[in-house]
Write a structure and sequence with these properties.
By secondary structure, this protein is α+β, with helices and mostly antiparallel strands. The protein has three helices and twelve strands. 15% of the residues lie in helices and 35% in strands.
């Protein structure tokens, strides 16, 4: 083996071993955007909260990055299921997370057909390869807009009245979200067309603590 080939091989080994300089998502993504995505992804559970408050569901949530080569944004596959039925998710989405011109971070929400065919595939991102961006349909008006809250949190919300949804008789829903390194707190509310409350999550929402390794 020539010296050049040997040196190149060693360099490749170091890149693989140490992570090199390759990073997922847009090459020009700032540290704050990367931190938000890092905190959003992983596995989460509110098992303790649900045990203490029987009015809350016991939820498991899994979020993994997909299409890391894309330069337009970070893309995340989302799967939520009940703790007693983890293999039958009740919600599957794809998030598109990017920085807006005003310095906030937009998390757009997408749905796709026949989502159950991807159930459980968060365990191995390679199994999500059949899921493609051109198969997605955006939930228009349902983006969550995050802003930095100090060094320890991102606080986000939808725009009131924009996320049209008829869940439990509502005309639209709103979502408030707090993302930290070790937890995600969500509070969803439904409203009638006259802006009167239709329903809201109990006890100011769900607090899902990270059960995967800390980013």
């Amino acid at each position: 083996m020539s010296r050049l080939v040997f040196t190149t091989a060693i360099t490749l080994v170091l890149i693989v071993t140490l992570g090199g300089t390759a990073r997922s998502g847009p090459a020009d993504a700032g540290d704050d955007l990367r931190r938000l995505v890092s905190w959003m992804t992983g596995s989460f559970s509110n098992e303790e909260q649900a045990a203490a408050d029987t009015g809350l569901l016991d939820v498991r949530s899994h979020l993994v990055e997909v299409w890391p080569e894309r330069q337009d944004a970070f893309w995340i596959y989302v799967e939520q299921a009940m703790g007693d039925n983890p293999d039958r998710p009740y919600r599957q989405r794809v998030y598109r997370v990017a920085q807006s011109n005003d310095g906030t971070f937009e998390c757009a929400v997408y749905v796709f057909e026949n989502p159950l065919r991807f159930a459980g595939r968060w365990k191995d991102e390679r199994l999500l390869e059949p899921l493609t961006a051109d198969s997605l349909t955006e939930m228009v008006g349902c983006s969550v807009f995050y802003r930095i809250d100090g060094d320890s949190a991102f606080v986000g919300n939808t725009v009131a009245g924009d996320c049209r949804n008829n869940v439990r008789g509502a005309a639209y829903i709103t979502s408030e979200v707090i993302v930290k390194a070790d937890r995600v707190a969500t509070w969803d509310r439904g409203f009638y067309s006259n802006s009167e409350p239709a329903w809201e999550a109990l006890t100011n929402g769900y607090v899902l603590r990270r059960i995967s390794p800390q980013p």
